[in-house]
Amino acid sequence: MTEKIIRKKKITRHGFSVLFVHWAVAISTFVLIFSGFAQMPLYKRYMLDRVPGLSWVSDYSVTLSIHYWAAALLIFAMVYHIVFHSMRRDFDMVPRRGDIRESVQIIMAVLGWAKEPENDKYLAEQRLAYLFIGFTLLILVVTGIIKVLKNLPYINFSEGFMLWITQFHNLGTILIIIGIVVHLGAFIFRENWPMLPGIFTGKIDMEYAKRRHSIWYDRVFAKKR
Ligand code: HEM
Ligand code: HEM
User: Fold this and answer.
1) Which of 49, 78, 123, 192 qualifies as a FRET site for 4, CA 20 to 30 Å off?
2) Could you give all domains of the chain from N- to C-terminal order, each with its CATH number?
């Protein structure tokens, strides 16, 4: 019996820089959440440090140093992202007027209650997710840098000011966890699955791009003509 292997045609959606930034931000954020909670200090209380090989999770100097290294990676990736996209004048992910209304329409369409609008490279809800996650990370970076300065021996801030900074750092932590849960929750829906290979390999199925991201698809091919 002859078996036919049908290779699906792919379209390039992301280059190396986008993949690097996504995974540098994702990995550093996971590490920052883990090492940040270590400072609260949750893991001693819940005896995670009794697990063989995990005694370091309640060692303040170790987890603080991990927090600093992950913060440096996060800041590098964010600065690289802003410089890279500004230089290329590529603002595909910046929210646009009407994105809230369009997001509701897309969610209704996923549930089968409405017709999906024509989409550009990113869905309206992806642009809003980008704004939410980006803004929250910015709060964490600014308040984090102030907390680092406070830890230096020759810099002092008032107690009241530092209390506010810590409240905002903690609020940012809660918001980023919510953002990640919603972000990953989007992939419960089958309609969003074809985007998953793209964030690992940079390529997605061409038929999917044509059907769901028609504005972007037409633009890519108009350029090639
Ligand atoms: C296992 C973890 C993760 C997976 C599998 C994943 C997957 C994805 C995928 C498939 C996209 C869509 C890209 C496209 O449109 O082609 C995306 C976009 C994005 N991801 Fe992630 N991601 C993960 C973790 C994270 C984390 C931890 C963050 C931030 C802290 C993050 C931030 C973003 C942002 C800002 C976007 C663009 C907006 C959006 O599409 O919602 N991701 N991710
Ligand atoms: C996703 C990003 C981040 C998360 C989720 C996160 C989370 C946390 C948490 C939960 C704490 C412990 C509670 C507190 O003191 O407020 C903490 C402390 C701290 N974070 Fe972050 N953080 C993030 C990013 C950053 C960044 C970017 C920096 C530095 C530039 C930073 C610097 C610090 C410092 C200095 C402390 C206090 C350590 C101490 O003096 O005990 N954080 N972080």
Assistant:
1) 192
2) 10-224 (1.20.950.20)
